[in-house]
Amino acid sequence: MERVAELDGLRAVAVGAVIAFHYTLNTRYASPVTGLGWIGVDLFFVLSGYLITSILLKAKARPAYFRTFYLRRTLRIFPVYFLLLATYAIAARVGGGPQPWSYWAMHAAFLSSTAEYFHFWAFAAPPFVYGGVTVLWTLSIEEQFYLLWAPVVRFMREGRLAWFLAAVIVGAPALRSWLHTAAFPEYRFFPARLDSLAWGAALALGMNYFSTDGQRVLRGCRWLGGLALVAVAVSLATTGGRRESLWFATFGYSAAAAAFAALVGWTVMRARSDAWAARLLRLQPAGYVGKVSYTLYLVHYPMLLLLAPVIGTWGSLAASLLVAAASWRWLEAPLLRYKDRVMPAVAGRVEFSEPAGGNLRTVGLTARGD
Question: How far apart are the first and last CA of the chain?
Fold first, then answer.
């Protein structure tokens, strides 16, 4: 199956935004643009919702549906995650003193995006450990989504699935509004962040339904993107994009997720085209950063806190890229080849009519690393 290389470019955009946020925070390089870099996480969520739902929709009638999906997800996520988690736990034990092992068990079970909302753990650890565990909440949301979403897609009819996604898209902002405080605890709370994943899933469902009408899909993405960008602009103008704002917490995340869903849909529909944005997303450096983005996302912040006093910010970024490249070369890529060999992905090929004509073309549904 031919891959959508441009989706790796979107991953590079997402991880680049998060890195810009962390690496300029409280520095002279901080700006309103870098201050919004945390929203790259929402692009990751929309991409995951789209890719995972696309895979599951094509696999739901196949044998070994659950076994194939969960084993592939395990091989993709667990090795790097638990290697880093063990490193942080050991460093905290050596450099900080006695530890609440329930805290590390919580991370090991991918429960930080729910458990930490109800309980606070206090312990002493080196600064880079705090940076390392700070970003793990997103993996918790992803893993809980994988666990729950596969049976929903498998057993729910597509019509009901659409209504279910609509309920999530409406319900998550309402929950955020109810839970919101000035400390914005809802930002990392799994049920309150499901709408970003749901927007990606809704895109996959819509593209699957209109799979032979590329013009309609592309037109829908443009309309959705236009409306969502207006909503984003209004949210930014009225709140400054501050997560402390009740208005932004309620509607800002949703507007951004809708805009990202439109962007992902446009990217898939314009894959391999001559559009300037598609050409940029296909550039080799962007593709490589997207390919190693999983480990790069996990290590960039702890590497900054660990190494910046010694080699500076740019040196820390270079070290993060080296660690991500090594992880890809010697750990992730071999595991990906293994899972593709013993548990081939069952995501199918989808034919879309070209927006500029009536001919059909085939588009793959996954980006490298899935």
Answer: 13
